[in-house]
From TrEMBL:
Active-site residues, Swiss-Prot/TrEMBL: 160 (proton donor/acceptor), 164 (proton donor)
Function description: Catalyzes the conversion of 4-hydroxy-tetrahydrodipicolinate (HTPA) to tetrahydrodipicolinate.
Name under which the protein is recorded: 4-hydroxy-tetrahydrodipicolinate reductase
GO biological process, one term: lysine biosynthetic process via diaminopimelate
Lineage, highest ranks first: Archaea, Methanobacteriati, Methanobacteriota, Methanomada group, Methanococci
């Protein structure tokens, strides 16, 4: 039985991850955490999620270290917010808990701090901007398109729900990095355009973030040349697409001793 703890337990992702873990025969939820100011701390997680009593009370992230020492989980899953994720990862890594990290929006410094703690403590981690299987195939296709259409004008557009806090999405940034490292010409990123910006430069990769309604997550990359345009789009219509990848990542990481992995490793796409 894989003992799992979830941080961000009442969030859009955390709550769905918990519901799906409870349906797995080989997994057991052993603790769940929320931000210290959450009014539901101390209440039963199952009742909070409308699942009936689970006899697991919602813990404050302030008690993460103490509770991890008590419940000794195999894996911690974090879908929170960048600054909280870094702290949660540092505590989990010190306690030798394996990691599945889906949080996005890290600054360069935050990412370095998180990776340093994972490496120093020699724990294994899956870190991915997008756990949906389709998005990872979309990334693979982008590798090919960037090689073959690297001279075309390339623009990335992402659309997410009005509650999303970071922009551009982690997925859009990852797509931009994949394109940059696979096209033959030098590239730089342009985040939106405003004013007398002049004609488009070949080196630009435009990145545009749209926030509206309840859109779960959509990513389009446009490759435009003279007389033609190729567009590739991934649309997530349910968070279950991400959650299914998280479940695969939990099973993948439980057998690893150390190292930093992503969803290409989990899905055999390397
Ligand atoms: N990699 C992937 O496949 C995906 C990644 N994401 C990313 O996951 C993250 C979460 O997204 P989403 O679930 O929509 O966001 P939510 O805001 O719905 O959930 C995040 C939860 O984490 C809580 N939280 C904040 N600080 C802490 C802390 N220190 N310890 C524990 N919990 C804490 C928040 O509480 P409060 O609201 O009180 O601050 C909130 O309940 C985002 O970065 C998003 O981009 C999302 C979908 C897929
Ligand atoms: O915040 C979200 O909702 C999502 N975030 C991830 C990202 O920033 O790429 C993945 C997904 O698109 C949903």
């Amino acid at each position: 039985m894989i003992k799992v703890v979830v941080t961000g337990a009442l969030g859009r992702m955390g709550s769905n991850i918990i519901k799906t873990i409870l349906q797995q025969e080989d997994m057991k939820l052993v603790a769940a955490f929320e931000a210290p100011n959450n009014p539901n701390i101390g209440k039963d997680v199952g009742e909070l999620l409308g699942l009936g009593k689970l006899n697991i009370k919602l813990e404050s992230a302030e008690n993460l270290d103490k509770v991890l020492k008590e419940v000794k989980p195999d894996v911690l899953v974090d879908f929170t917010i960048a600054h909280a994720c870094v702290e949660n990862v540092k505590i989990a890594a010190r306690n030798k808990v394996k990691l599945v990290i889906g949080t996005t929006g890290f600054t360069e410094e935050q990412r370095k701090e998180m990776l340093k703690s994972i490496e120093e403590n020699k724990v294994p981690a899956v870190i991915s901007e997008n756990f949906a299987i389709g998005v990872n195939i979309f990334f693979k296709i982008l590798e090919i398109l960037a090689k073959k259409l690297g001279d075309y004008d390339i623009e990335i557009i992402e659309i997410h729900h009005r509650y999303k806090k970071d922009a551009p999405s982690g997925t859009a940034l990852k797509a931009a990095e994949i394109i940059k490292s696979n096209r033959s010409r030098e590239s730089y990123f342009i985040y939106g355009r405003k004013g007398l910006v002049g004609e488009r430069k070949k080196e630009e990769i435009g990145i545009h973030a749209v926030r509206c309604g309840d859109v779960v997550g959509e990513h389009t990359v446009i490759f435009a040349g003279d007389g033609e345009r190729l567009e590739i789009t991934h649309k997530a219509s349910s968070r279950q697409a991400f959650v299914n990848g998280v479940i695969l990542a939990i099973r993948f990481i439980k057998d690893k001793e150390e190292g930093i992995y992503d969803t290409f490793d989990v899905l055999g796409l390397r």
